Amino acid sequence: ASCVQYRLVIRDVNTLQILQLYTCLDQIQYIEWSSDSLFILCAMYKRGIVQVWSLEQPDWHCKIDEGSAGLVASCWSPDGRHILNTTEFHLRITVWSLCTKSVSYIKYPKACQQGIAFTKDGRYMALAERRDCKDFISLFVCSDWQLLRHFDTETQDLFGIEWAPNGCVLAVWDTCLEYKILLYSLDGRLLSTYQAYEWSLGIKSIAWSPSSQFLAIGSYDEKVRILNHVTWKKITEFEHPATITNPKTIVYKEVEKSPAVETERLSFPPRALASSLFSTQSKYDISQVPVSLQYVKPIADRANPKIGIGMLAFSPDNCFLATKNDNIPNAVWIWDIQKLKLFVVLEQLCAIQSFQWDPRQPRLAVCTGNSKVYLWSPAGCVSVQVPVEGDFQILSLCWHSSGDSVALLSKDNFCVCYLEREEV
């Protein structure tokens, strides 16, 4: 699905043929599929309206108007039949049922980075709340929206919450001014508190491993700390120095090469082909250690300094962890989780915009704001030029759940890259 101002366009994944066109009441600012892909919601925050479209019944339509309460966020519940709307100033969350047309209200949701979290099986929802200048967590049963547990948290200013993939433990972390991560069980018991240091900027990002055995915490001190699920103590920490000295670490360095153009292809090539022929190609060389990476000194007196671990993600098989240190914007670090050692560093020519693991295998796609997509797997690393006309700067990417294709998004366009599956 993609939106062009008022229009919602539904395409076939394999052919990109348009299957449905829907016209909304105003400019679409957010779209989201239901879990079973039968419905899609379109949020128009300026108007305080959500419209829902059915793929099976194109004539069926649904409009949710929050009226004077306004709208700042909208999302599906895991069953794909309830919509959660957050009103302006985070006064309440309204839960709308598509089946019974009933409405439930949840008061005092906290305005924070990540204030709603659902368990992977869709049974429970955790909500961060703020009342009387204190932080609370409420746990709800998603089938009937009944309150299961309500407890206060030992946080100064709660920043985010995230369930472990097995749904047994809820991670709650504090604002970056206070290094604190709290781990709660499903019945609201505090299992553990972890604090690496004091009096300095704290947690910047977190990621659970798919097996729920590890919790990776990225901090402003340029380190990733790994906690284990048995004692919730630190088992190791990964540093991100500007110089790589370990001879066992493979460093792939992107280098530009001028395009080798064959004269017989030049008679009258199509424009798209011509632009890809003359665009600068790139490939990877393996660098000899020690390698010095490009280090950017952060401006200390500005808000949100470019420092620390801004992105981290585990591979679907639990074997690798990819990280980005914002001080070294052109590098992706890939750690071997079985050996707890640095395995590979990708040194790009431009700053990393986004990376994401293939959901089916340990294959990482990276984009750097140019018209190339980079793929790494344990077998090696490759740079792929996207053959498009004009300037196509890839700012983000998204894998298909099958791992057979990846959508590449620029500011105004998108394209789909199809990967041939290796025959086993």
From TrEMBL:
Gene3D superfamilies recorded: YVTN repeat-like/Quinoprotein amine dehydrogenase
Top-level taxon of the source organism: Eukaryota
Name this protein carries in UniProt: WD repeat-containing protein WRAP73
Pfam families (alphabetical): WD40
Record-linked PANTHER family: WD REPEAT PROTEIN 8-RELATED, WD REPEAT-CONTAINING PROTEIN WRAP73
GO cellular component, as recorded: microtubule organizing center; MWP complex
Taxonomy of the source species: Eukaryota, Metazoa, Chordata, Craniata, Vertebrata
Record organism: Struthio camelus australis
